[in-house]
Pseudouridine kinase
Amino acid sequence: MKQEQQGEKPYVVVIGGANIDIGGQAFEPLVLKDSNPGTISMKLGGVGRNIAHNMSLLGLHVCFITAFGEDVYAAKIASSCNELGIDSSPSMHVQHGFTSTYLFIEGKDGDMEAAIADMALYEQITPEFLQTREYLLQEAQVIVVDTNIPENSIAWIAKHCRTPIFVDPVSTTKAMKLQAVLGLIHTLKPNLLEAEILSGVKITDRVTLYQAVDVLLATGLQRVFISMGKQGVMAADHRGCKMLPCIKTTPVGMTGCGDAFMAALVWAYLNELELEESAKAGLAAASLCIEYPETVNPNLNQKHLKERANFTEYSVSTI
């Protein structure tokens, strides 16, 4: 974060991925090993970047730490962050590096047929690099981490930062990076598969779901919000747990809901909302996201979030 901003406004830090997503969709059934007529799009993505974008829309002051390559994609992402009011200046720029890129091909029906994820650049976000940003991390209100960064870097953040840490496991494979530090995390937002991996409990019904929650909280984790797709979310802390259904809406886009949910959890925490109200905020943000064809709904804001969550008597504090 720019030095002149430090001390002026409370801020949150996001550490994680910022990608360029390049996708192609065929007009007709895909023919392998041949050229297929279709459309090609390029969008900004990455779990960390998406969360930062959503938090900025909710009025939070966001500092973003990622790894940029030495290419036009890095300039595009940094420019977008600047336009959104996200400070990406503490990010690292890797000489001769290539900015993280996700390349995918969809068939006529929109189902992904093949993809390549080039995310090796995030290995550069080492504990040694993070030490150079320690003051920034220690003074933040919240640190949000996605597991695209190395396991030893996640461990360094968990063990050295007194700031509350919120984590998105990203995937079942990357979730394993959290196993040793779960007890040092404030809030975890896994899906069912990630919750199974981290708890060691096969979730098949309500009973085993509660068992998984108990195992996760027993590590010392303070809050867990398990996304259950169309079934809603299981929210739990050391005082109890609550299953909440999804908010009914008309789906348009299916990606980015988890990123919006996490952003709303941070917003709710900073506004001192209890467990159930925090989950409602997350579900409201996710429902707004799903109504928009892109990964982030630009119409997300505090007013719309409160209305969707039905916070009729809730007054937002100044963040």
Observations:
- The first helix runs from residue 47 to 57.
